[in-house]
């Protein structure tokens, strides 16, 4: 399957800096279902095109066939754009999706002329237009005809989008809407998918006229997840009739239970000045702001785009000054020392460590526990043993997870960290526990030992 991005911005070769890909090279990336390639068919000062080609391996696809309604024998997955292409788009152009560029940071905030082409996409002209046109795209969706002896149009279109947008916004539109048009995902949809939807939909999804359809399809028609996503999107807006049809979940979603557990751990530690490390688009920050006990809150993330999303989510520009003085957002990498992170009562790493490559985990440990040394540290991470309860899940819970630990593995890591850096640690489960596999999330509360002075 193929997707191309073209710009006539001058110089057009700036596209390479925005995508963090060199126009003179063909680059290759391993994917769970095949191989992704990035190449530039044209790269001049006047016009530049980047092509993402996903070559699906039938053997790997067959191994995951239980996720597909057409099984391993007959399906369109190697050819039609779907969640497979969306995942490849996110992995290959991760920095561009986040709106970061080391070499040309000033470009990331600029709207530039873009043309997006997806030659084979499942959907109708009407639906494609309804999804993309409200986002500022001029949409050309040409139905693909069936063979002459059959006649008529197939269920696929050749899509061309043109508009002047930030590249990061364009990639996030595609990342969300390609699976929506396909109306299926190649992996099990967990509650954590809500956060992915909100993160990629920040700034545009809440006001989209088809947000209910998008939420339902993106979350695989799991009504409780769609309900939660819509409630988070429209917390300050009255529900429409269509949204009101969605039933209210009987239990709080795991993401909400996790936030409550973190808040309880911070209260247990007596913390008032708190770091949210790897804060992302600000879900925990919003909860911290609601608690008056937290007098100073710092959200830290490596992604400037995530921090922008957090600022919009928190409405910092409209926040009363008294509230605004309580919170600060800073950009930093958690695997490097940053003296701005020292001197706080507590730090939170909520669903962060599993996104760090294992060889880089000691660097994060040294930065947080060795250098910043807050009075308490709260860490949450998935319990991989619980994954057996997620029907259809064949890998890890999130495509960006570098690892997921058993309870014994997490306890061993936490115990080692505590011993090396002078902390005590207690571990507990979050979410409804199973007698055999434990709870879906595991939480560690580290408390710094009193310093002994001579």
Key features of this structure:
454 residues, alpha/beta, seven-stranded antiparallel β-sheet, seven-stranded mixed β-sheet, 16 helices, 33% helix
Q: How many beta-strand runs? A: 14
Order of helices and strands: EHEEEHHHEHEEHHHHHHEHEHHEEHEHEE
The share of residues in helices is 25-40%
Largest sheet: 7 strands, antiparallel
Weakly predicted, low-confidence segments:
63-71, 236-250
Radius of gyration using CA atoms only: 23 Å
Mean pLDDT across all amino acids: 87
**Class computed from helices, strands and strand pairing:** alpha/beta
Number of helical regions = 16
Indicate the proportion of strand residues.
15-25%
Main-sheet strand order equals 2-3-4-1-5-7-6
Polypeptide structure, described:
By secondary structure, the chain is α/β, with parallel strands linked by helices. It is 33% helix and 23% strand. It is built from 16 helices and 14 strands. It has helices spanning 14-19, 58-63, 83-92, 94-98, 125-132, 167-182, 193-200, 211-218, 223-233, 241-244, 254-269, 283-290, 304-314, 321-324, 361-372, 407-421, and strands spanning 2-7, 27-31, 34-43, 48-56, 112-122, 138-145, 153-165, 273-277, 296-301, 327-331, 346-350, 376-382, 423-430, 441-448. A seven-stranded antiparallel β-sheet has the order 2-3-4-1-5-7-6. A seven-stranded mixed β-sheet has the order 10-9-8-11-12-14-13, with helices on both faces. A hairpin with a 4-residue loop joins strand 3 and strand 4. Helix 3 (83-92) runs antiparallel to helix 6 (167-182) and helix 6 crosses helix 8 (211-218). The chain is globular and about 80 Å long. The N and C termini lie far apart (68 Å). The model is unreliable at 63-71 and 236-250 (pLDDT under 50).
